């Protein structure tokens, strides 16, 4: 072998070793269905769920707890839905609903809450003129072709609001907040 061949072989060998090392990381691999960046802790769905799935999951959860109001829903690892529904006395009932939104898999299970927490839930439910379905419709009108991965009935500056993580067709996240009584936009911030 000539000197030139040995140098070329050495360069190729170093390149192969360097490329082989590129796949090694001390961080765990990203979980299926999410993407991550090397230095960030946020994740986004590879494909956001069909908005109709959220609506089905909400309807199944509310049907499982008579006279309840959906106050929180979010997608979980594997596509299942975590749902909280508040009963008329303010007790939150937790459920896990299947990824297709048609079956309650776990629950309903009442959460152990203080009387003050129950009173907050009752007040929010009473203040909200828009239910979760109307909130979803309003938010998806603000982010065309969007999909919601989390929806929450909460408070913002002493106003009852619906807050959501809405993903547009480019899989860009928007934090959307609307007034739960009027449906007016409070915020639509691209993350």
Written overview of the protein:
By secondary structure, the chain is α+β, with helices and mostly antiparallel strands. It has two domains: 3-44, no CATH class; 51-190, no CATH class. Helices cover 30% and strands 32% of the residues. The chain is built from four helices and ten strands. It has an eight-stranded antiparallel beta sheet with strand order 6-5-4-3-7-8-9-10. The chain has a two-stranded antiparallel sheet with strand order 1-2. Strand 9 and strand 10 (185-190) form a beta hairpin. The chain is globular, with a radius of gyration of 23 Å. The N and C termini lie far apart (58 Å).
- Number of helix segments? 4
What is the radius of gyration?
23 Å
For the terminal residues, how far apart are their CA atoms?
Answer: 58 Å
Chain-averaged pLDDT: 80
Low-confidence stretches: 3-42
Number of domains: 2
Largest sheet: 8 strands, antiparallel
**Strand composition percent:** 25-35%
Q: How are the strands of the biggest sheet laid out side by side?
A: 6-5-4-3-7-8-9-10
Q: Could you state the order of secondary-structure elements as H and E?
A: HEEHEEEEHHEEEE
> Strand pairing plus helix content: what structural class?
alpha+beta
Number of strands: 10
Estimate the helix proportion, in percent: 25-40%
Principal-axes geometry comes out as: globular
């Amino acid at each position: 072998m000539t000197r030139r061949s040995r140098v070329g072989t050495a360069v190729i060998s170093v390149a192969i070793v360097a490329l082989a090392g590129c796949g090694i990381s001390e961080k765990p691999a990203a979980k299926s269905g999410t993407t991550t960046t090397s230095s960030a802790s946020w994740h986004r769905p590879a494909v956001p769920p069909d908005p109709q799935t959220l609506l089905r999951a909400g309807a199944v959860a509310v049907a499982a707890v008579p006279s309840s109001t959906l106050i929180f829903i979010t997608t979980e690892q594997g596509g299942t839905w975590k749902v909280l529904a508040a009963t008329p006395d303010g007790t939150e009932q937790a459920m896990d609903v299947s990824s297709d939104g048609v079956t309650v898999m776990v629950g309903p299970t009442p959460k152990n809450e203080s009387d003050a927490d129950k009173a907050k839930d009752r007040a929010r439910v009473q203040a909200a003129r828009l239910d979760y379905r109307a909130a979803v419709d309003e938010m998806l009108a603000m982010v065309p072709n969007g999909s919601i991965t989390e929806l929450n009935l909460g408070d913002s500056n002493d106003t009852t609001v619906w807050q959501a993580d809405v993903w547009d067709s480019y899989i860009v996240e928007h934090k959307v907040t609307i007034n739960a009584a009027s449906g007016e936009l409070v915020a639509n911030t691209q993350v």
